[in-house]
# Entry
Amino acid sequence: MKLTSTLNSFLNLFYNYADLPANSEQSITAKRFYESVIARAVQSPEFRQRLLHEPEAVMAEIGIQLPEGIKVTFVENTAQVVHIVIPPYIGE
Amino acid sequence: MEKNPLQEILIRACSDKPFREKFIKDPKGILQSASIQVPENITIRILENSDDQIYIVLPTSLEEQPAEWAYEDWPTPGETFETAGLTIKWTERGLSLLGRIGSESAAELRRQLDRASGSLLIDFSQVTFMSSAGLGILLSTQKRLAANQNELYLYNVSAPIKNIFSLSGLDSVFQFVTSESDNTWWMAYPNV
# Structure
């Protein structure tokens, strides 16, 4: 299996099924997040730069509230570099 | 749903410390041992989320993608071919099919697909019938494109047609895309 296919189906899984519980006005589904942030970042270089350099400001504008103390960092894949994010270590 | 090998690696990395360290140190090695092919010129960087740090990966920007999607010899969008019950129309990202893919129309479909040199999206929404001849052509196209790290996406395949793929055991070979994921679906895909 190719890396592309694997990443693709993983992204699909994430964006289509990993919806967060819609129990507050501030909660945002993964799909909406994808549409409003990721897809936009792919199309608009300006928006992409803002995400990379001032993520907190952009998230606030879009209406995504995060708990105090959580830092969000955007990184970009390029034609040469692919990032894979692993969840925190939770022990045996 | 078929298990995603990358997902399995990520889940294991959460609880298996030596594995996690090995994955961070040599991601390509781990990916390859899970039968995930990584192109040689690609660098993999592993980022660790923690309790207070979330990383979000942005796919390759459109400006960096032309190598995969834009081809000088890409047929002109709108170019249309009609053959035994099947209409083949070129679009900006591939082609759309209307009608029946049978043994009579297979030759023309093959001729058109052979013109594609990059990743290709085939719109199946108006396909009403497909024989094993069609299946064979799609399979050989998929193999040819995959040899150059390109992808074949089948868009909006109806349930009856999808059954033909499933019954032949070929549904995991192809990447099915549905209209539910809207027309920006392909932007999510990192250009690897």
